[in-house]
Specification:
The chain has 28 helices and 2 strands. By secondary structure, it is mostly helical. A two-stranded antiparallel ribbon has the order 1-2. The radius of gyration is 38 Å and the shape is elongated.
């Protein structure tokens, strides 16, 4: 043996044997455990795949999932009441609506200050529209009240103005309420510089001395800066600030105040004891006597929480009451009828499409390819025509002076004075929607029937089966997956249709989707529309689950 041979490493067989003798994980070429290396490679592969689909995924989330989630959230969202009337709703928490008594003066006071701010921001009309969904007339009540709030404010404003004209000037108020540093910055600010206006800050200690006045003046000042883009040093405060000042001066001790406008404030303190006053409750009743209606306050209290089940209760013909959920009056229950009608008519349309589409699909699957392709073009031809045109054509066909009635009269099958009523009812909706949705049944059936070998029927007949037996025992079971696929397509499409029922359905042939469209586009009650849509979605998912348990979704095929 040479030296070179003696100095060489162990033979490959010896190395493998030694590696086999040492227990431990299998290693990759770079020395890392093979399992860890494989997991790392799989993670990289998944990340590459995720990066490829990320743009499409983000597009679907932003344009499809997020809007639907936002719309469904509106079915429970109810923040407009508590956000617009924070003081009033807080006081209403202490009011027992079951006693039949009206709220106390504190509630009316909170409502006054809330509505003043809401009226300036033009939110009181939106609030009235929201509550009008629950009790008719509240929309006009809030609009009228917004116009009449000055009747209460003027009582105090006029007396302060008569006492000292400076109470109607901007600068004395700004000196009294504003922080000195802010006041200096505000006076030095120039609109032409392009810099933002200094944000208003209250003077130290003024909130403790005049709490209500400070709160209302701060709201006014920031409104003037952000909404009107005006300086509080140049804009006279709202008359409501004077009402708050009167309330504060009645109870405040200003004898120790030595800040700006101290003499004017002390003069007002000495005079307020002789001021003419008006109660907030009295003032609201003078504006509109409906503020003395117990049901109005009951509605506001009922819908004051930030989240509510009221929309869902309305969607199932119920309502919120102080005692809990209760059914609406019988003449007000419409949504239960619409849900039942929608499901019933969707099932009828689905069955009609099966009965009409099955023979057509069988014919397409068993004709020579050239003829089958020609007929398939005729099946697809309606897709080249607008849905609105096809629906309008059925309206022309089915009306009492339409084509079908004219033909029946001409044939003598129907008397001219007894023409059939086939439009603006359930019959018209079923006929028109069956025609529109029929291709969605034919195409899945045709694709499945094409895969059924004709030799199966010949084999069954050679074994003694009749034509009917061969079809029913051999051919039909193999076409059931196509029926399932077509039925799901037609049923889900029909349950959400609203254009065709709107045109040909009249009052008895409309679906729940028509009501959803009405609340979104006309009444703007998006919360109720979202609740109806959520219930409809839940019904579809429940039916889908039942279908999966009975038939099996794995048996649904498109070919």
């Amino acid at each position: 043996m040479t030296d070179a041979t003696a100095g060489a490493g162990p033979a490959p067989k010896d190395a493998a044997a030694k590696a086999a003798e040492k227990p431990g994980p299998m290693l990759a070429a770079d020395g890392t455990p093979l399992k860890k290396s494989l997991n790392r490679a799989l993670r990289r592969q998944k990340m590459r795949a995720l990066m490829l689909i990320a743009p499409l995924l983000l597009f679907v989330l932003i344009t499809f999932v997020a809007p639907i989630a936002d719309m469904l959230f509106r079915s429970v969202e109810n923040q407009i009441v508590s956000d617009t009337l924070p003081r009033a709703t807080a006081e209403l928490d202490n009011w027992d609506a079951t006693t039949g008594d009206l709220p106390d003066e504190a509630v009316y006071e909170g409502l006054y200050y809330d509505l003043v701010v809401a009226e300036e921001y033009k939110l009181h009309t939106r609030l009235g529209s929201r509550l009008n969904y629950e009790e008719t007339g509240l929309s006009s009540l809030f609009r009228q009240t917004g116009r009449g709030l000055d009747d209460i404010s003027d009582v105090y404003f006029d007396q302060f103005d008569d006492l000292n004209e400076n109470w109607d000037e901007a600068m004395p108020w700004a000196e009294l309420m504003g922080d000195p540093e802010w006041l200096a910055e505000q006076q030095a600010w120039n609109a032409e510089s392009g810099d933002p206006m200094p944000r208003f800050q209250l003077r130290d200690g003024i909130s403790e001395l005049l709490p209500k006045t400070a709160q209302m003046y701060q709201t006014f000042a920031r409104f003037a800066q952000t909404e009107d883009e005006e300086s509080p040093t140049e804009e006279e405060p709202w008359e409501t600030v004077h009402t708050a000042l009167y309330q504060d001066l009645v109870n405040a001790d200003v004898s120790g105040y030595t800040g700006p406008q101290a003499e004017m404030l002390k003069e007002a303190k000495a005079a307020v004891g002789d001021f003419e006053t008006i109660g907030f409750k009295e003032g609201f009743l003078e504006i509109d006597e409906d503020w003395g209606d117990h049901e109005v306050w009951q509605t506001i209290k009922t819908y004051s929480p930030k989240y509510t089940n009221g929309y869902f209760l309305n969607a199932v013909d119920m309502q919120k009451t102080p005692e809990g959920p209760a059914l609406r009056d019988e003449d007000e229950r419409i949504y239960g009828i619409l849900f039942k009608r929608t499901i019933f008519m969707s099932l009828v349309i689905t069955c009609s499409c099966i009965l009409l589409g099955y023979p057509v699909a069988w014919l397409l699957a068993n004709l020579p390819a050239r003829k089958a392709n020609l007929l398939l073009i005729l099946v697809l031809l309606p897709f080249w025509t607008s849905l609105l045109v096809r629906t309008s054509a059925w309206k022309v066909m089915l009306q009492q002076q339409g084509v079908i009635n004219d033909v029946l009269v001409w044939l003598g099958l129907v008397a001219d004075e007894s023409r059939l009523v086939m439009i603006n009812n359930q019959f018209g909706t079923i006929v028109a929607m069956t025609h529109i949705l029929l291709p969605f049944m034919i195409l899945p059936l045709y694709s499945v029937m094409q895969t059924i070998p004709p030799s199966y029927l010949r084999a069954a007949k050679s074994l003694g089966a009749t034509n009917w037996t061969a079809f029913w025992r051999v051919y039909f079971p193999q076409s059931v997956p196509g029926i399932g696929a077509g039925s799901i397509l037609v049923f889900i499409l029909s349950i959400g249709y609203y254009i065709t029922p709107e045109i040909v359905g009249g009052t008895t042939g409309t679906f729940i989707s028509n009501r959803i469209a009405y609340h979104i586009s006309s009444s703007l009650n998006w919360g109720l529309a979202a609740a109806l849509g959520s219930i409809l979605l839940a019904v579809v998912m429940l039916l889908y689950y039942c279908y999966d348990k009975i038939v099996g979704i794995d048996n649904v095929k498109l070919g």
